[in-house]
Amino acid sequence: MAEQEASTVGDSGGSTRPTDEQRLLAALRRGDEDAFRTLVNEHGPFLMRLALMHVPSRAIAEEVVQDTWLAVLNGIDRFEGRSSLRTWIASILLNTARTRGQRERRVLPFSFLLRRREEGRDEPAVDPDRFQSVRDSNPGHWARPPAEWDSPEERLSAEETRRVLLEAIAKLPVRQREVIALRDISGWSAAETREALGLSATNQRVLLHRARSKVRAALERHFEEEQLVR
Q1: pLDDT at 33
Q2: How far is the C-alpha of 156 from the C-alpha of 216, rounded, in Å?
Q3: In whole angstroms, what is the distance from residue 202 CA to residue 182 CA?
Q4: Where does residue 185 rank: exposed (0-12), middle (13-18), buried (19+ CB within 10 A)?
Q5: Pick from 145, 54, 47, 30: which is nearest to 89 by CA?
Q6: What is the C-alpha to C-alpha distance for residues 181 and 61, in angstroms, rounded to an integer?
Q7: Is 9 in contact with 15 (CB distance < 8 Å)?
Q8: Cα separation of 197 and 182, whole Å?
Q9: Residues 6 or more apart from 51 whose CB is under 8 A from it?
């Protein structure tokens, strides 16, 4: 039965070769341990990063990931293939992590709780002080435009810059962190991200824009400080 589900029928009525994901799914449904090991190796680090966005310690994040894999094994026969396998797994992880994060809330730092409370508040993506006011000659235009970065790829590869980048992402509201992690760190498409997080196209764009703006501002401050000490 699993093998039959892994095959698709073409327009001509003949069967087509199953995709890699369909073959993996069929193997998982047969209880193939090698297939499960492949899945864990491919998605494990990514799931850990997502879990760490919601819980206060790596130990708890590891438990969240383990619970996610158990849910995957228990639910694999009910997976209907309406989304990709990795999107489905990410959705399970996020639901598990959010639930566990709520349970652990009493031990979270106050600053973390404050960020969670303020997530729903509307906020500008860029500091309004960086634009000219109505009293200036060009209201709405840049007063302090973004700084030009020389060889940004090279600078972003530096260990200290990477630390600043990750810290800036860690300080974002959870939804913004999730979106930027999926889009810019994991390379997911907008459609996959919307599906995994249950977002509309507009919300996904707004969250990503705000997240990128805040991370860029943090990097700008870091690069400006670098220039001052040279």
Answers
A1: 93
A2: 11
A3: 16
A4: middle
A5: 47
A6: 16
A7: yes
A8: 10
A9: 60, 61, 62, 64, 65, 68, 93, 97
pTM (2 decimals)?
0.64
Q: Are 181 and 175 in contact (CB under 8 A)?
A: no
Q: Which two tokens stand for residue 4?
A: 């039959």
CA separation for the pair 184, 66 (Å, rounded)? 25
Please provide the DSSP assignment of 82-121 as one string.
SS-HHHHHHHHHHHHHHHHHHHTGGGS-HHHHHHHHHTTS
Give the pair of three-digit tokens for residue 9: 């029928």
Rounded CA Rg of the chain = 22
**Under 8 Å between Cβ of 115 and 171:** yes
C-alpha separations of 24 from 28, 34, 84 in Å: 6, 10, 12
Going by pLDDT thresholds of 50, 70 and 90, the confidence category of residue 127 is low
Rounded distance between C-alpha atoms, residue 118 and residue 211, angstroms: 15
* Token reading at 15: 């069967």
pLDDT band at 144 (very low <50, low <70, confident <90, very high): low
d(CA 163, CA 177): 16
Output the DSSP codes for 112-126: HHHHHHHTTS---SS
> What tokens were used for 75?
């639910």
Residue 223 is predicted with a pLDDT of 78
